[in-house]
Specification:
Among the domains are: 3-53 and 82-255, no CATH class; 312-529, no CATH class. It is 29% helix and 21% strand. It contains 21 helices and 22 strands. It has a 20-stranded antiparallel sheet, with helices on both faces. A hairpin with a 5-residue loop joins strand 2 and strand 3 (116-123). The two termini are 44 Å apart.
Length: 684
């Protein structure tokens, strides 16, 4: 199944509105029908109720917002250029909704050759008569797109289609893609489609009664569904999903092998590296999602299934996977210096000294030479041209277990408008400050600034506009002449090319930009914890996931979404320099050029995926955004996440034919009287 299919699968299920198998359904529950080699699966329940709840939600109402229709039309026109969709099955969500009478599920199944096949199962109970006309329409469209009927198993209609052409602005794939294949079969009360005729044929015999070696026979799947569905209110329509991440990635790699490049070194196998270092402790992830339960507009329960693997009694996991040990604590709250008008906040408990030591085998494995991690640490201490600091004893061991991340943005909204602050609690601020000062004093293009009685170390561009070097450890995939294990990099590989660091308020404060650090040091903004919208979200989350937790997050979604939204409107999404934007662009660049590897700088920004010029002014839709939060709890089965978005159901700030709501002013924001940084409904 194409990667695009999994990126948009959730949208398909929401758009269709689906039901689980019930009495008189066209096939057994899909988790009983699909094999144990199912690597990814998504379904939903109770078509009418699910769609009704979705339509009442903020997202559902945003889909119906008249001001957005020009954008949606342009998006549909772009998507329709490839066989009706890019989901890989040749059937649009609207067409599926016309024949759906029960469960609908999309899955990726690993076949005998170890490759993935996409499968779509649709319960057509009550709509069997409409299915032939739908398929004739689909077949005709495939023919218009160059598809040709090919021989298939008995009862299967199979097509071969030309490979997908690259999107506008995409690079040609390094390995010529194979022709696409689609197959369709019909049974009483069921429509089955897939990207492999053999997989479709293998599914048909199990539709009625299921199979023994099914998805539901997997311990990971059963545990996830049981735990994430346990406290769902009775009668609420839900959607469910599951993925085996390592197995899925491995099978997908067989589908899209990377091109072989001449190299003096053996290429890095990141999947095998993950297994060697203990990360195969993660055996699955999945959960349950539903809309509109009281003040909660959207809720998800998610479990990452990773039972403890350690036999030493020290921590939960072995090898480098020890970094995944997150201890629960009675309370996680924003430090009092986090500005109350920030867009988002996250608090996490993490044993950073233990994490530091756990990284040793992983770094050595990435570099390809044992002992490199210790060599780098030793060089930082002993090299006469280096900072001469003992990283572990003078820095790491003085870090406590609390990590905090806060984010915000400044106007005007441009490619560098988002701000991020990372704070690490320290038990010995004086020693840590001295260590950081010694380290930063040896860094190129770094200057010392005094601000409000605090020392800030800021990275500044040189005459050519490049920031100072980063401290990234070079690996076998780096293609210049510097040796592996050496320090190197530039602004393009640094997470914070314009970063600033200070030790203050009992924390090491690492900022993407100096201005957000100065705002924290000023301490003039009211504390985050005092804001009414934050307090309500925490109260809701505590009720949804009682007990000690290892992580808590909160976000004002309008403030978070707006920078990206404005960049889309301006056609500058690929130029986004925020940490989130850089990650998203790296993912998309890797998707366009499989096998190119992370960290490779593309030749200029890619072309925009979406034509954002059709988007309305943000004020016209700001009212559809509320607040959102999430808690994580370390449990014997792994990590349980419960997230919720709160929305008051109010009208948008400027709906069609309505009057504009008065936006919060800078003075309001500074004083803490505004609940959000964009006009919209407040949480009461």
């Amino acid at each position: 199944m194409p990667w695009d299919g999994w990126c948009t699968l959730g949208a398909l299920l929401v758009a269709v509105g689906v039901a689980s198998a019930a009495a008189g359904a066209g096939f057994a529950p899909s988790e009983k029908v699909l094999p144990a080699t199912t690597r990814a699966w998504a379904s939903a329940a109770d078509a009418a109720a699910f769609r009704e709840r979705f339509d009442r939600s903020a997202l559902g109402r945003l889909f119906d917002e008249p001001a957005m229709q020009d954008f949606y039309d342009a998006l549909d026109e772009k998507r329709s250029s490839v066989a009706g969709d890019r989901l890989g099955f040749g059937i649009t969500p609207k067409e599926l909704s016309g024949v759906n009478g029960g469960e609908i599920v999309a899955a990726a199944v690993e076949g005998a050759e170890g490759k993935l096949a996409g499968l779509l199962l649709v319960d057509t109970t009550g709509h069997d008569a409409e299915v032939p006309a739908l398929l004739e329409k689909v077949y005709a469209r495939l023919g218009e797109k160059g598809g040709k009927r090919v021989a298939g198993p008995e009862g299967i209609t199979a097509f071969e289609l030309p490979p997908l052409e690259p999107r506008e602005g995409e690079a040609a794939p390094p390995v010529p893609p194979a022709p696409r294949r689609l197959a369709y079969a019909v049974a009483p009360g069921a429509l089955v489609a897939g990207t492999d005729a053999a997989a479709v044929a293998a599914t048909l015999p199990h539709l009625a009664a299921g199979r023994d070696d099914c998805l539901d026979s997997l311990e990971a799947f059963r545990t996830i569904m049981e735990k994430t569905g346990a406290d769902v209110p009775a009668g609420v329509a839900t959607g469910r999903w599951f993925v085996d991440p390592l197995a899925f990635a491995e099978a997908r790699r067989r589908d899209r092998p990377a091109p072989k490049k001449p190299s003096k070194r053996k290429p890095v196998d990141y999947l095998e590296m993950a297994r060697r270092n203990g990360f195969d402790c993660i055996r699955g992830a999945g959960g349950t999602i539903f809309f509109g339960e009281g003040r909660v507009d959207l809720r998800h329960n998610t479990l990452v299934y990773a039972p403890a693997t350690s036999t030493s009694g020290e921590g939960r996991y072995e090898k480098a996977a020890r970094i995944l040990d997150f201890p629960n604590v009675p309370a996680i709250t924003p430090p009092p210096w986090v500005p109350g008008d920030a867009a988002n906040w996250m608090g996490l408990r993490w044993d950073l000294p233990a994490v530091f030591r756990a990284l040793e085998p992983l770094v050595d494995d990435m570099v390809g030479e044992p002992g490199v991690f210790d060599d780098v640490i030793s060089s930082l201490k002993e090299d006469p041209d280096g900072p001469q600091i003992d990283v572990e004893n003078d820095l790491i061991r003085h870090l406590a277990g609390a990590l905090c991340v806060a984010g915000d943005s400044v106007t005007p909204y441009d490619v560098d408008c988002e701000r991020t602050l990372i704070a690490l609690e320290t038990t010995d601020p004086e020693t840590v400050a001295e260590t950081i000062a010694k380290s930063m004093a040896t860094e190129a293009n770094t200057k010392r600034v005094e601000y409000g009685g605090h020392v800030i170390w800021e990275t500044v561009p040189d005459e050519e506009g490049k920031a100072g070097r980063s401290t990234r450890v070079r690996t076998a995939e780096d293609d210049d002449d510097r040796p592996r294990g050496s320090l190197g990099g530039d602004a393009e590989t640094s997470a914070f090319p314009n970063g600033a660091v200070a030790v203050a308020k009992g924390h090491v404060l690492i900022a993407s930009h100096r201005d957000i650090l100065e705002k924290v040091l000023d301490g003039k903004a009211p504390p985050f914890e005092e804001r009414a919208d934050y307090r309500e979200a925490v109260e809701q989350l505590a009720a949804l996931l009682p007990g000690d937790v290892a992580m808590r997050t909160f976000a004002r979604t309008a403030s978070m979404v707006r920078p990206t939204y404005e960049l889309l409107r301006a056609g500058k999404g690929p130029e986004n320099k925020s940490l989130t934007g850089r990650l998203a662009n790296a993912l998309l660049d890797a998707r366009d050029n499989p096998g190119s590897g992370f960290g490779k700088k593309p030749k200029g920004p890619r072309a925009p995926r979406i034509d954002g010029t059709k988007l309305p002014e943000f004020e016209r839709i700001a009212g559809y955004f509320g607040t959102a939060g999430m808690s994580m709890q370390t449990v014997p089965e792994g990590w349980m996440f419960v997230g919720a978005s709160l929305w008051d159901g109010g009208e948008p700030a400027l709906s069609s034919g309505g009057d504009a709501a008065e936006p919060a002013t800078p003075a309001d924001e500074a004083s803490g009287t505004a609940d959000t940084r964009a006009a919209g409904p407040t949480v009461k």
